[in-house]
Specification:
three-stranded antiparallel β-sheet, single chain, globular, 66 residues, four-stranded antiparallel β-sheet, 52% strand, mainly beta, 9% helix
Amino acid sequence: MARRNEKVANFIDIDIDEVVRDESTDLAVLVRIDKDQKWIPRSIIEKMEPKQITVQEWWAVKEGFV
């Protein structure tokens, strides 16, 4: 589920199940959300936590998270 990060209006928090691959590439992070896996470009990531990732809002909208 995505929700607006109130601190910075142009970022969205996305709940994830796990980070599948973090160090295999410098360009993206592979995460699992429900039963799907999704590559997220590092260039749009603001913050990563074990169960949540904060990304640029335009990307979250484009990918259907919002």
